[in-house]
Amino acid sequence: MESMDGPLSNGIRTRRKIFHLLLGTLFILSMMAYWPLKWFFLAVLTSGVILSFVQERWNLPVITWILDRYDKKDDPIPGQGPLTFFFGAVLTWFLFPHDIAIIGLIVLTFGDPFAYLGGRSIGGPELQWNPEKRWVGLICFMVVPLVLITLLFGPIPAIIATFIGTIVESIKWPYRVITDDNVVIPLISSLGLFLILLIV
């Protein structure tokens, strides 16, 4: 969902959303094609964590160039956005059944960028419980994944997962690294869908 916090230019925000969309699509296509890449993505995540640890102490030329163009300056961890995305996506892939994991990643991949586009281009009133988010962003976050998941898996999983994901995204969490949107959205959406389908 479109957020109004943080000293980030529109150019950097747009580049981040495009990267988010492309990376998530790569995960989703890999899963749908049954490519055995989750261990590869886990290795990439591990390498990223190591590079982030090194970058925090010494500026690596290539990594610094990338971070200057994509990273939020107020993030406590270098490369926090891609790292949390990989962490949330890989963990969802390992923890949940195939289709449910894909649905969770669709909510994450397509909800956030379109919420940003809707919130920025249309604007409108803020959420009463989280003034950093807008109602238009909330609606856009829900609608695009809802359509995609309905086309692929049917309306019931789509309604359940997107509703849960939208609620999770709208909450103002207390600590960003642990409760980053990239982690909580796919995990809680997938977990909620898994439990509801298990009960019914």
Folded structure, characterized:
The protein has 200 residues and is mainly α. It has one domain (10-199). The chain is 73% helix and 0% strand. It contains eight helices and no strands. Helix 1 (10-32) packs antiparallel against helix 5 and helix 5 (98-122) crosses helix 8. It is globular.
Question: What keyword list fits this structure?
Answer:
200 residues, mainly alpha, 0% strand
Give a brief description.
The chain is mostly helical and 200 residues long. Helix content is 73%, strand content 0%.
| Mean of residue pLDDT values | 86
In percent terms, what proportion of residues is strand? Answer: under 5%
Biggest sheet: strands, sense, closure? none
Query: What count of structural domains?
Result: 1
Radius of gyration: 17 Å
Helix content: over 70%
Order of helices and strands: HHHHHHHH
Total strands? 0
Query: Count of helical segments?
Result: 8
Low-confidence stretches: none
Query: What is the end-to-end distance?
Result: 30 Å
Which descriptor suits the 3D outline? globular
By helix and strand content, what is the structural category? mainly alpha
